[in-house]
Amino acid sequence: MSDESDYKLGTLAIHAGQPPEPITGAVMTPVFQTSTYAQPHPGAWDWEYSRTHNPTRTALQECLAALEGGKHGMCFSSGLAAIDTVIRTLRPGAKVVCGDDVYGGTYRLFTKEWAEFGLEFSFVDTSQPDVVIPDGTDIVWIETPTNPLLKTTDITALAKKAHAAGAKLVVDNTFATPVNQQPLKLGADIVVHSTTKYLNGHSDVVGGVVITSDDAIAKRIAFLQNAAGAVPGPWDCFLTLRGLKTLHVRMDRHKENAIAIAAWLEERGDVGKVIFPGYSGMISFVLNGDLDAAIRFVKATKLFCLAESLGGVESLIELPAIMTHASVPPDVREAIGIPDGLIRLSVGIENLSDLIADLEMGFAAAAG
Ligand code: P1T
Question: What mean pLDDT is predicted for residues 72-80?
């Protein structure tokens, strides 16, 4: 294709990394459902083995890198596999400063697994402008907005502090998506995503990606992608590419619905607190009432399906303390302000009036 760097995000989502297939001219990137490739001569190959390279995966990687304004993209079999691979580049004694409100599975991987291998993790609220990054830190790891409290961090300011301390800044951009923020352009060194969420957008694939413009980091991640092998299959890459094509359109509608629902929640007397950063489709709120009322609420909605995950076209509802963040110990949850009754909504792209009527059923059930 012509110079992709000139294209806007919606065009890149549909075209980047996806020229027509050269043999047949197929407009859609085929599913190269093969584990291996014929070699014309021993050891002479363009394509060797699908753990190392697969054309469907390459198309997805190039498209995702383009969307984040990065040079290199490496896809993984889940968001956590992508996160694990970035941490795997560290060595015992390395220091990671992590945002204090991150996905429960990320917290679990860091504290229950990697801490056992001599990596040191500390958790701080990076949304505070006066946050200090100690010298000698290797990685600063953030989500912005965070999961589930939707706190936001000034990426540009934090990147400067991280670099002054000798650290790389990693941003998990799953909640915002490149439609709303492109961390590499703001100074971050690495972006990770659970592509399971908004990027694929249809709740039918689990996947992840690491994106960077730093050649040395990319070389190391690509080595580990092949050496450790947590790669996605070609069919999952195809589905994710297909989902990506509508990312910009979906995100507009998620935002439109979420703005209206957040405003509607704010007006209600039976809601204690509404957290909504103003974009994307994620809203967290605290119901006036006890945990049982919150449980009645999440069981009563129909369109808002009671399920973990987020970012699909369909609306989801969940209780982080019992579900996505159950692996964060209760005292830690309390310290960072995740009440047991916090309800997290992933607002989908259904019709707004139906979603509001559905939430009304939740409020009626909560009131008992
Ligand atoms: O589920 P997986 O594709 O492995 O991605 C893990 C992950 C990474 N980063 C963020 C910000 C996430 O929210 C997740 C997964 N989150 C959920 C399943 C959830 O319901 O919050």
Answer: 98
